[in-house]
Cytochrome C
Amino acid sequence: MKKGMLASVVMIAVFMAACGGGSKNDKATEGAKSETPAAADNSMVAPGAGAPASKGETLEASLDCKTCHKVDMKVVGPSFKEIANKYPATDENIDMLASKIISGGSGHWGTTPMTPHPDLAKDDAKEIVKYILAQK
Ligand code: HEC
């Protein structure tokens, strides 16, 4: 209940800020004050909270991709932004990258290989690629 309230207060604040309105700031602050200052639980207010996640994003989040990839920072593998900038979202690229996620491999970014993901369905892999290629 409290978490839910906090999340909606934050969402309202974000929404207001996004719309350029400042008049409701008092209300948001009031709401925040009534919450215990205890360790802010940010789990409900991840960046982009409120925006419905695409299927590809949800799939990606449920897999091991994040151990090696972040949206805007190179980890073991290239960042999703780098990938999006390298490949235009054409059918051939989406198909090629989906196969690469399933079979793994190296050579396009260096010698570090990506682990294969044989249990991933091709269509799901394509959804993930579409999500990645949208991260420009
Ligand atoms: C063990 C670390 C690791 C994991 C886990 C991993 N990747 Fe990768 N990924 C890499 C590396 C390293 C590369 C660069 C491969 C190359 O040089 O061709 C890469 C490359 C890619 C590319 C670009 C491929 C190309 O040919 O340019 C995509 C797209 C990608 N990964 C998506 C994913 C997705 C989606 C997942 C989760 C299902 C995932 N990766 C999991 C390490 C990883």
